[in-house]
Amino acid sequence: MRNEGGFIEEQRRGERGLTHLIEHLVFVSPTINAPNDLYHLTKIGLPLTFPAPSAGTTSWRETNYFVSTRTTRTADLDTLLRLFREVATDLTFRSDAVDDQRADVMREMADRKPGNVIYADYIADVAPGSPTDVIDGQNSNDVPTASVETIRALYRRLYRPENMMVVIVGNVDPTTAKALITQRFGSWKSIGSPVVHVPVPRLRYDRIAPISFSALPQGRRTALITVAMPTLSSRGPKRSQMNAELMDRLAIRAVNNRLAKAQPGSPSGKVGMFIENGEQGHRLIMLWDNFTGDAWQPALVDLKRTTCGLGTAGFSADEWDRARRDLIQDLEQITGDMGHAKNVELAKDLSHAIAADKELIAPSALLRRARIWLPTIDASTGSAWWRRQWQSGHEHVRVEAPELTRVVDPRQAIRTALDAASSGAACRPLRH
Question: pLDDT grade, residue 53 (50/70/90)?
Answer without folding.
Answer: low
